[in-house]
Amino acid sequence: xxxxxxxxxxxxxxxxxxxxxxxxxxxxxxxxxxxxxxxxxxxxxxxxxxxxxxxxxxxxxxxxxxxxxxxxxxxxxxxxxxxxxxxxxxxxxxxxxxxxxxxxxxxxxxxxxxxxxxxxxxxxxxxxxxxxxxxxxxxxxxxxxxxxxxxxxxxxxxxxxxxxxxxxxxxxxxxxxxxxxxxxxxxxxxxxxxxxxxxxxxxxxxxxxxxxxxxxxxxxxxxx
Length: 224
Fold this sequence. Notes:
This protein is α/β, with parallel strands linked by helices. Helix content is 32%, strand content 15%. The protein has helices at 10-17, 77-88, 100-109, 121-125, 143-149, 158-162, 169-174, 183-191, 195-204; strands at residues 4-6, 22-31, 48-56, 62-66, 94-97, 118-120. Strands 1-4-3-2-5-6 form a six-stranded mixed sheet, with helices on both faces. Strand 5 (94-97), helix 3 and strand 6 form a beta-alpha-beta unit. The protein starts with a strand and ends in a 20-residue tail after the last helix.
């Protein structure tokens, strides 16, 4: 897992991204306290917050940034949001996401409007054939399926990645503050199955050919 790191400063994010002009990113969201018992609240920008974020500029590499973890060190929220706005509005960087509509909604809730160029791999997937005569549908375009069929690398499950920590699960639930488990190591491991590394892989996939040059989200094609 040496190519996947957990970072907690904007400078470390900048060091990783460098001068890359194609960057995949992904949000991890969690329900606000008021809505913690509400099903799917984490998918509603009005009821949730960014818990973490990942970036990838190259296949098999990535960084994960804890933003609002309850345990362990988080990045300074103000500094991170300033960087996020700079990144998402930078017209010299192609921002890639798997279902960028979600990232757009979450960003908009933070008063950030993502600017082009952008690339959505879930939209691109629906422009490819799943057989000799049939295009993929939305149900065929999930990252778990695409990673196995196109990247030929199955997306590991959360349980697979964190299995060595399972003995501590009860301790975490009962008393999170006193738990000795290395949550940063968990974050680093989970980054290995996070969307960003596989999303950049999909974007670079030779099988997709000219789709790499298409801006999939036309409603981004004007200034706000």
